């Protein structure tokens, strides 16, 4: 029997992971969208996602797939990993 050893993340890594990724991603999306000068309707047209869905993402009301995160990040010219960091770490 082969056992794999799983170690707990270091305290620094644990502190870098926020409790609510949905809200963090939504806040990052809103900030990046504003910086890009895009409305939600413009972003919907560029991403293929609905205006309503994007609005719920910004409010932290949607549990996103990685694929959706990639689409949003690509439209905004960002990396998903950057959008999941706390604002103080960006």
Overview of the molecule:
By secondary structure, the protein is mostly helical. The chain has a single domain, classed as lambda repressor-like DNA-binding domains (434 Repressor (Amino-terminal Domain)), CATH 1.10.260.40. It has six helices and no strands. Helix 2 (21-36) packs parallel to helix 5 (66-76). It is globular and about 30 Å long. It starts with 10 loop residues before the first helix and ends in a 7-residue tail after the last helix.
How are the secondary structure elements laid out?
Elements: H1 11-16, H2 21-36, H3 40-47, H4 51-58, H5 66-76, H6 80-83
Helix pairs in contact: 2-5
List keywords for this structure.
globular; mainly alpha; about 60% helix; about 90 residues; about 0% strand; 434 Repressor (Amino-terminal Domain)
């Amino acid at each position: 029997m082969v056992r794999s050893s799983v170690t707990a993340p270091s305290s620094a890594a644990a502190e870098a992971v926020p409790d609510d990724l949905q809200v963090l991603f939504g806040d990052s999306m809103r900030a990046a969208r504003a910086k890009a000068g895009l409305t939600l309707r413009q972003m919907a047209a560029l991403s293929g996602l609905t205006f309503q869905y994007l609005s719920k993402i910004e409010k932290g009301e949607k549990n996103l797939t990685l694929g959706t995160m990639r689409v949003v990040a690509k439209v905004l010219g960002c990396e998903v990993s950057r959008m999941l960091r706390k604002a103080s770490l960006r």
